[in-house]
């Protein structure tokens, strides 16, 4: 269905705002993709909201990890309403906006609109929610979520206007307590156990998650109507995995972060090993070149070279695993594991105020979480009080493994450089850098904080290449420019 001409201008402007918001969320959208998005509006049925959602996603997104952020923005710019986007019956309405009388659109219950016994209202809505979850009607569930927010999520009126909260809805309905009832409804007389129950439980989890997402989307819609879409979008959209600061990464970010780090680790090792190559060909083979020149009167028209030896990367990784950089240390060990899975010439060392080799924990196929647990239990990384001491850690490393860093070795240090006002060990680090083929330090703190407080990052930066590496995007930039 093609958009009516009376609404084309407003629809195009609305789409432009949506595309800008997607781009600001960190999802790269080029001009050609924006043009394709405009074309989508002419070929999909605008009366079908989900068709529009999937159509725009097909041309604007490149990775599955971008979908959660996209869905949040789509629900803000194209909210569920009783009048579809671009309805020609109201040419002045902005596409996707809900009208003033939309709050009770698509009601599934004849509710007393907040009057009467609140417990009775919640109980009736729980019964209706259980029925909808068993039926599995996604559209009806979204409209019920909208009604539930209106009836149960409303907070006491504040001077700035009405406020709604998803947790009030979830507390009143307690959908997680409906699991047994939902399983009985889905399984019927089939009984428990076996594959049927496993499938039913997975279905229940998915439908409960869909209901929570619908409640959150409705709360955001109401907040956007009051405070503006752009303002709500800045706080509602979570950063993409490659933009999450390593120091603040949550458990939910780690799986996607690992998928992002693995190819970067391979590229990093390849780049570091390429620095040891002697051009495209090996050394000159003088004897073969002279022999070949006899056929041209002693003029070496053609030169011959010995076969070039391809060296495996010899990489030494020094990881700070102290509590102050817990999130970053998880990333560094994840990076170490990814390097070890592809290359055997990688040695890993962890430190807090002492240093120990942890290469044995990162065998190919080993689980990163298990390796981190073993480092905490088995590695000798604490000598005194368990607070970072870069100076002592570097001295222990240089004393116990004097031959670990040599002319063919690339040294990679990962840490924030905060020494707790102890000696930084600059001479030891300078000697390691001098002996190594190349040396780099990845620091998870913003550059503006280097040298502040107990940070010796600015001083370390005088003897080693110090690189700001707060997220996977900056890691990719570092690998690209190496």
SSE blueprint:
Blueprint: H1 5-24, H2 31-43, H3 49-60, H4 67-77, H5 118-135, H6 138-152, H7 166-173, H8 179-187, H9 194-227, H10 229-236, H11 251-274, H12 286-293, E1 315-320, H13 326-342, E2 346-351, E3 355-357, H14 368-378, H15 390-400, E4 410-414, H16 426-435, E5 438-443, H17 457-460, E6 465-468, H18 472-481
Parallel strand pairs: 1-2, 1-4, 4-5, 5-6
Antiparallel strand pairs: 2-3
Helix pairs in contact: 1-4, 2-3, 4-10, 5-6, 5-8, 6-7, 6-9, 8-9, 9-10, 11-13, 11-18, 13-14, 15-16
Describe it for me?
By secondary structure, the chain is α/β, with parallel strands linked by helices. It folds into three domains: 5-77; 118-236, no CATH class; 251-276 and 311-481, 3-Layer(aba) Sandwich (Rossmann fold). It is 50% helix and 6% strand. It is built from 18 helices and six strands. It has helices at 5-24, 31-43, 49-60, 67-77, 118-135, 138-152, 166-173, 179-187, 194-227, 229-236, 251-274, 286-293, 326-342, 368-378, 390-400, 426-435, 457-460, 472-481; strands at 315-320, 346-351, 355-357, 410-414, 438-443, 465-468. The protein has a six-stranded mixed β-sheet. The protein is globular and about 95 Å long. The two termini are 51 Å apart. Residues 89-105 have a biased composition (Acidic residues). This is VWA domain containing CoxE-like protein. InterPro entries: UCP010256, Uncharacterised_CoxE, vWFA_dom_sf. It comes from Geodermatophilus tzadiensis. Pfam families: VWA_CoxE (PF05762).
């Amino acid at each position: 269905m093609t958009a009516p001409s009376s609404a084309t201008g407003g629809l195009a402007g609305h789409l432009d705002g949506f595309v800008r918001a997607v781009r600001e969320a960190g999802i790269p959208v080029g001009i050609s993709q924006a043009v394709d998005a405009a074309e989508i509006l002419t070929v999909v049925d605008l009366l079908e909201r989900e068709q529009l959602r999937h159509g725009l996603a097909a041309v604007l997104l490149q990775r599955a990890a971008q979908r959660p952020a996209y869905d949040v923005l789509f629900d803000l710019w194209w909210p569920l309403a009783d009048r579809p986007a671009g309805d020609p019956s109201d040419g002045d309405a902005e596409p996707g906006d809900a009208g003033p009388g939309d709050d009770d659109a698509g009601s599934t219950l004849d509710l007393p609109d907040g009057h009467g016994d609140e417990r009775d209202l919640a109980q009736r809505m729980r019964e209706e929610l259980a029925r909808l979850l068993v039926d599995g009607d996604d559209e009806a569930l979204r409209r019920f979520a909208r009604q539930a927010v209106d009836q149960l999520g409303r907070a006491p009126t504040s001077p700035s206007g009405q406020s709604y909260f998803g947790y009030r809805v979830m507390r009143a309905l307690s959908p997680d307590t409906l699991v047994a009832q939902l399983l009985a409804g889905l399984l019927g007389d089939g009984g428990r156990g076996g594959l049927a129950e496993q499938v039913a439980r997975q279905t229940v989890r998915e439908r409960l998650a869909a209901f929570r997402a619908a409640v959150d989307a409705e709360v955001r819609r109401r907040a956007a109507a009051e405070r503006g879409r752009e303002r709500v979008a800045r706080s509602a959209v979570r950063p993409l995995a490659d933009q999450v600061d390593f120091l603040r990464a949550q458990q939910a970010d780690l799986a996607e972060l690992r998928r992002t780090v693995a190819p970067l680790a391979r590229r990093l090792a390849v780049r570091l090993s390429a620095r040891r190559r002697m051009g495209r060909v090996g050394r000159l083979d003088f004897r073969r070149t002279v022999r070949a020149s006899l056929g041209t009167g002693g003029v070496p028209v053609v030169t011959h070279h010995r076969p070039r030896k391809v060296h495996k990367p010899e990489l030494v990784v020094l990881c700070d695993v102290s509590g102050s950089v817990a999130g970053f240390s998880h990333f560094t060990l994840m990076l170490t594991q990814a390097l070890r899975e592809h290359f055997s010439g990688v040695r890993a060392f962890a430190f807090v105020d002492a240093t120990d080799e942890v290469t044995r924990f990162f065998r190919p196929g080993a689980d990163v979480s298990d390796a981190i647990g073993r480092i905490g239990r088995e590695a000798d990384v604490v000598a005194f009080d368990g607070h970072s001491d870069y100076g002592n850690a570097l001295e222990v490393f240089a004393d116990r493994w004097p031959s670990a860093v040599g002319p063919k070795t690339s040294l990679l240090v990962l840490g924030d450089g905060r020494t707790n006002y102890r000696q930084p060990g600059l001479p030891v680090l300078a000697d390691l850098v001098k002996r190594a083929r190349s040396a780099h330090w990845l620091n998870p703190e913003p550059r503006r904080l280097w040298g502040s407080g107990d940070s010796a990052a600015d001083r370390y930066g005088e003897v080693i290449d110090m690189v700001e590496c707060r997220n996977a995007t900056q890691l990719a930039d570092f690998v690209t420019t190496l």
